[in-house]
Batch of 4 targets.
Target 1
Amino acid sequence: MTDYTLETPVTSERVWLHVRRRAWLTIFLPLAVLTYLVYTWFAFGVPDILAKAQPERAAILATDSVAYKVHVTKNFRRNDVEVAIEGERTATYDPALLPNWVSLDSENARVDLGDGYFIDIEGKTALFTIPEYGVVKGTATKSGVEIELPEGPVPDWVKVDPRKLDVRPALDKRLQVTKTKIEVHNYFGGWENFWFPFRSPLHGMSFSQLYALALSADRMDPDTSNLWFIADEFLKNPDWQHGEIFTALFETIMMAVLGTLTAALFALPLAFLAARNFTPSRLMRFGTRRLFDFLRGIDMLIWSLIFIRAFGLGPLTGALAIAFTDTGSLGKLFSEALENIDNKQVEGVRATGASQIQRYRFGVIPQILPVFVSQVLYYLESNTRSATVIGALGAGGIGLMLVETMRTSRDWENTSYIIILTIVVVILMDQGSSWLRRKLIEGR
């Protein structure tokens, strides 16, 4: 028998047609992507957002997150000069112990901001000497501020207004003059009063001094040891609230752990009801799977808002939101793992005369244990981050404290502190879960 193979003849016209199609496809796809990007650019109002953007504001917040400022204030109502960290009354320097860059002479003052920048306060007048520009003069009056500038164009960093003079030639140097006060800001790197409050007897001590104090027999407080006194002063720092932040972090971790474990405990038995090879009832499988879809179909944030309405604010609402969402997600994953098990191992256990519970215990659970452990630990890591967002809505924990510090620009360094601690906790959770995964699955 002869075998005939029908082949379409390859001609130059067909080759040219194929090349043209590929060329049109090569041109059309980039054009389609470009058209979509242009559409989204205007549909999402990106030009308006960029027009309203304030990059200088972002620079100021970035500076505040890694530095602090000392205020030198001449108040005309009290007719005195105060030097205070961040302008706080509780962090005001004693007039006899002023920083070496501030010198007072009765009601007048001279502030050395470094790099050739000087501010002289004489009565109600401030003279700001700026290298390569000149002297900016602002005098407070009953109606506002009289301003004298060097000749030439006015720089962008000089804000001239009849009611206020604002001069900021650099991010770390600033002068403000109004009819009620003259205020100078001088920035320094680091976080102010991070370890101990300004009025604490431990303020300004080095680590070696603190170590020696902890071992000393002479107690700072007769009722407690020096070591506990140091720890108590640190944890009760009113500016940084270390004790409250550590408690909030613990609440966030407990929220994630409780929610994840609760979800895992409920998802595993429900997964058996949703697995095709364990539940012959099609109606039961359908109902269980739709339950999973319902639980994970509603976002965790929505569940959190629902439970806040039902039970009020607190970590319990966050744990319930995590548990409800993850029950649906883990239940689906566990049911798929159950459907993919090897039945030979189950049959081998059955051949020994084992009961149904024993078949599940020794024939099924060992096969899905790696999936169970891996997924639960992964969701635990993810929920540690999610618990922060849920807490910001009112569930408590570190998220709520983060939102409170973000409400004012003055506390931006506290915001950075909380964000860094949250990242550290997530890293530790990741390392811990990796170690636990190796122990439980690989036996190492």
Note: The longest strand covers residues 67-75.
Target 2
Amino acid sequence: MGTETEPFRTVPAEVRPYLAELVRRTHAVCGPRLTGVVAVGSLALGDYRHGRSDVDVTVLVAGPPPAATLRELADALDHRRLPCPAAGLELVVYPADFARVPSGEAGYLLDLNTGAHLPGRAAFDPAGGPSFWYVIDRSVAHQDGIALYGPPAPELIAAPGPADLYAAVRASVREHGDGEGHLADNRVLNGCRSVVHCRTGRWLAKRAAAGQVAATEAEFRPLIEAAVRSFERPRAAALPLPGPQVRSFLARVRALVDESAAAAGA
């Protein structure tokens, strides 16, 4: 089916067999429509932590394929049929033609969440939902995505334009500022990653971004360091962080993002 062994050596050993089987099943369902499978998120940024991180995957298909094919794919990759060794699988399927063009839209054909620590979800219509998750993921994929099947990630997935990306980062910071459904450490570290991206134009692993922000934001250094310590633990053992400090830090993040956006004219 054209899958090379080399890309799988660049992902953690704990998830290699799972990803190989995921690619095999995706190819079996999609057939010649399948144009690419890309590892994104913490796998792409070199910050995957077993027992804490999700496996994030982007799939590109020519088509779009029939709805029945997408439902078959969701069933084939469901945790009950293909147990995910990570905290969960977050997989997004895009039309290949859509992904090759910069966009601020969600644009997916299938958004699948499944796993021991994720609420199950299989969505087939992005209308009415937030788009920022997908815009940021495509930006990470263009920068550092690991092609598990098909051409290199930058050939498959375009980088969003600056205005769309700043809008997505702002929406992400607002989402984590509200906090509902997110671990406190993840809220802080995503804020750090947003700040570093706005300053440098690069996505960094969460812990690397935390180090940079802690060095320049002395007021919040103890909070950021506590978030890193918590992130190094399994999800179930995450450390509590003081809510008012987390909210104050994310307000600071919003201000820094707005400053960078204004300087960039976005």
Note: The chain has twelve helices and six strands.
Target 3
Amino acid sequence: MKTIGYAAHSATSELVPFIFERRELRGNDVAMEILYCGVCHSDLHTVRNDWGGTIYPAVPGHEIVGRVTAVGPDVTRYKVGDPVAVGCLVDSCGHCDQCRHEEEQFCRNGRTDTYNAPDRVTGANNYGGYSKHLVVREEFALRMPEGLDLAKAAPLLCAGITTYSPLRTWNVGPGSRVGIVGLGGLGHMGVKLAAALGAHVTVLSRDADKAQDAHALGANAFLLSTDEDAMAKAANGFDLIIDTVPVAHDLNPYIPLLDIDGTLCLVGQLGPVPEPNTAPLVLERRRIAGSLIGGIAETQEMLDFCGRNNILPDVEMIRMDEIDAAFERMERSDVRYRFVIDMASLPAPATT
């Protein structure tokens, strides 16, 4: 299938229209027309090769919502016309212990990411959701809940599951005391999801102007992380803190905020951070942990939870040709809180 997307051809080039071929349907494949695609910091990091290993041309995008246009002969879960979604994963080995435990993101034999990763069968580089069409194994296509606004839902497929998974891992519910560090694309979803689970939610930020937004999103409290007195008074006050900051930063101010057996979970920054002081970890049995998206079953659980509670990201819709400007704004944190690309804006229809 010939289709069109937007691709970067180097770490310094703008994204431009790119014609390419999607694979022919295998027996258990679903073909979908992409209607909306969220814009994630990971897209920007990949395009600019910040993490190394980017294969060009690179078509980013792993927050994908669309409709089924065709199915392979062995597909049983979907039919043409169904609304479906695809997140950060499009394949895994299916038989290792992690895959059997529905934790495909930790596949022992290597998960297959939605873009900038080799297809498990052909070895060809995958292209992501900044495009008109996608072909994916039916096991990695997710059913969109009835009534959930498709135009706003795309960021749930990364920002949503990235914050939902640690909330579920650490059994957050009524009575839980949850802190969310940072109020961007991930952070604002963490607030909404934690509040819906019944937790007492506090937003931690260096920006006092975020307090009003934090409360509007459902937070119970706001803690200015540069206020040493307020931080001292908040000591031992949290069971779980989800740190969504996407750049290197000092973790030490947050560790004393944890109660005994409390956890600081990192979901934003990948790479080195300033050295943590281990004394408050050892003396109060606190933990620093990390979390990576979620498995397919947990992602479907998250979508269904959002459907029942009408939880959606706050988004700004853009055209496909506005992506470079959106990247620049995202670097300045000038978005509330997630960009979503309307794929109807692509310059030409695909041809087959």
Note: The first strand starts at residue 2 and ends at 7.
Target 4
Amino acid sequence: MSQYHVLIPSAGRGTRMQSTLPKQYLSLLGEPLLRHVIQRFESCEQIVSITIVIAEDDLDWQPSLLNGCQKTQVISCGGATRAESVLNGLKALRDRVQPADWMLVHDAARPGIDQKMLQRLMDAVGTSDTGGILALPLADTLKRADHQGGITETIPREHLWQAQTPQMFRYVDLHNALHTYLSRHPTDEAQAMEWMGKQPQLVLGSLKNMKVTYPDDLQMVAALMQSTLK
């Protein structure tokens, strides 16, 4: 029976946060962002292992982030890009997972993931071989701009979705896709799978699962997370 493993690429610096501290270590509701993410997966019974990929020169990692954790390990093999970090992590896990096991790749800066979203993803994707991702249908009209900031085109939002994570694929399929297309710099795992001819499934995510990218995002995520605890 296939098992579920989580891989968290955490080697980025998050320069758009305008902070000297990488965003995955910034404080949110009294704990680092990454600690919230770890706890969500630690509490999911179906998850058997969690691997965090950090940069070799990461001086901000604190072993206390794993206090009380039973499933989580950290490895220092992060690459120059997200895709490279994920592929390096997959290679490091080669002897610990089976080819048909599921890998759930999740952003270190998405602390709002919860059990309902995880269960929805696993239920929707777990019986297929195409894999899938959490995502949200676009609610706003999209505009394409020129280099001066002028509108050049209005893009219909029908059938357009905003990708989130986790992105869930069979170990062997994801490894092969990233290995084959690493030089094309896929922006997420689903894109590499698309280039392999797969059609990953879109599974409804949540606004609470937004990625912390800019300084104001911390307050937004904190409010969304607190609202669900009341």
Note: The first strand starts at residue 4 and ends at 9.
